[in-house]
Design goal:
The chain is of the alpha+beta class. The chain has nine helices and four strands, in the order H-H-E-H-H-H-E-H-E-H-E-H-H. The longest helix has 20 residues.
Length: 225
């Protein structure tokens, strides 16, 4: 599909079929994602792709931690409070998602269940966990975002759905232990991906986007004349 179609069709999918993406296709798309731009071409992303039993085992460990009441310990702050229009957008996204799932805002058990689905990668057959070396900061984290969007658009163009998840960065210690990684690898977020299961209620959710006039300001000599 065209780049326009891929951008328009990409959305966060929260329920997947068990079918795995063929390994040669995964390698093809990840190789293309390596062409993403980065500051000074340093390519700071460190990507670990999990599939099959390794992925399911990791999901079980993180869900168990949440159920045991173990507090998250992310490598980067995850408790920012949004205000104004940003808070309104956050609330709208939650309303659309929980509404599609038939979960009332006061139904704490079901909302907790929905949260734990994040930690099990929404049942996806694959996940990419994206790390940043501890010597890097905000500028390099931006590069990871560019890389992630490149990867997700490539997935979309091949009919593969995805969901970028900040929640996958809540238990980085568990993930590092699972993968045998050093503390120098700081986890930013992850991307669950695979083929969408249209029967999953969460996949009916749709969220809007701000209008161009709310996000972009044009400047030109003509405008000042």
């Amino acid at each position: 599909m065209s780049i326009d179609e891929a951008v328009a069709r990409r959305r966060s999918v929260r329920g997947y079929l068990p079918d795995e993406v063929p390994q040669d296709r995964l390698r093809e798309l990840l190789a293309l994602a390596q062409l993403a731009p980065s500051n000074c071409n340093i390519q700071p992303w460190i990507t670990h792709v999990l599939s099959g039993p390794s992925l399911r085992s990791l999901g079980d460990k993180m869900v168990a931690a949440a159920e045991a009441g173990i507090p998250p310990d992310p490598d980067f702050s995850a408790d920012r409070k949004f205000e104004g229009v940003y808070r309104a957008r956050q609330i709208d996204a939650a309303v659309q998602l929980y509404g599609a799932m038939g979960i009332d805002r006061h139904d704490r058990p079901r909302r907790d269940w929905a949260y734990r689905r994040n930690l099990d990668f929404f049942g996806a057959p694959h996940a990419a966990l994206i790390f940043l070396h501890h010597t890097f900061e905000e500028r390099e984290a931006v590069d990871l975002g560019i890389y992630a969007q490149t990867l997700m658009l490539l997935l979309t163009s091949r009919g593969i759905s995805s969901c970028a998840q900040g929640a996958l960065g809540l238990y980085p210690g568990i993930i590092r232990d699972h993968l045998g990684l050093p503390q120098t690898h700081r986890l930013i977020f992850g991307i669950s991906f695979g083929y969408e299961d249209p029967a999953v209620e969460a996949n009916r959710a749709r969220v809007g986007r701000a209008g161009l006039e709310d996000a972009v300001v044009f400047h030109s000599d003509a405008a000042r004349a």
